[in-house]
Amino acid sequence: MQLSDFKVFVPSTMYKDKNFTGYDISVYSYMSIxxxxxxxxxxxxxxxxxxxxxxxxxxxxSQKKRIKNSLEKIINLNYVDGGVGEDGGYYIDVKCFPKLKxxxxxxxxxxxxxxxxLNYKFKYDLVKLYALIIxxxxxxxxxxxxxxxxxxxxxxxxxxxxxxxTKYIKILEEQECIxxxxxxxxxENNIYGAxxxxxxxxxxxxxxAEKMNNNRSLMQKYYWVQRGKTYPQEEMIQIRNYIEKKxxxxxxxxxxxxDGDYPQYDLSVLSWPN
Length: 274
Description:
The chain is of the alpha+beta class. It has ten helices and nine strands. The chain has helices at residues 12-15, 22-35, 47-55, 61-76, 109-116, 123-135, 151-158, 162-174, 198-226, 233-256; strands at 7-11, 42-45, 82-84, 90-93, 104-108, 139-140, 143-144, 178-181, 191-194.
């Protein structure tokens, strides 16, 4: 397998953890390069090895120390089985790698490499956001398709503002890591997918655009109803049906992502006399 074809399996518990930074995810990803072609037994890594392929330069003392801290976090939180050697290296049990069961974000290592090559102070935040977007895509059969997670959900996971996430998303688009179908309305979510799937997702655009336009209209009417405006009963039924579906969707998302913010909309304003 060539390096350009290598993909990293990042556990969802890692990229969703607010205490796990994009830097930690990057260390885990580049550690994987050393381990993927090992068929059995232990492997032995030095922080300087990982630093060299991450930064494409001879490692400094501070770089090696930072990678050391990330490696120990990865080991201590049981993402791999391993420990510290007497000479400052780390032994990893390759048979247990990756160790945890569950969902993973599958990231091409060259995409991560391109992100880290940027002359950008917050490039490690970009790595974490990339993992969050790719990992939160819904399944269509056996294939992941797109994510409908909210800007504020991404922001909460990384610890930055909504405006910063919007800026990060644009950078990931420019780097051809993700593609975005924008809703065009603040209260509706965008759709995010892997850049490699842009052609497949483009097929969804006409349908999605029509759906979003209709949803936008129903949502705007709902806000007007809250302010006292009335519509013909047929339209009120359409609005109520849409809000009921939205509440069910939010309830399911809230259950799957308990730390997210998925509001329930008041249906009582959509009642009318018999």
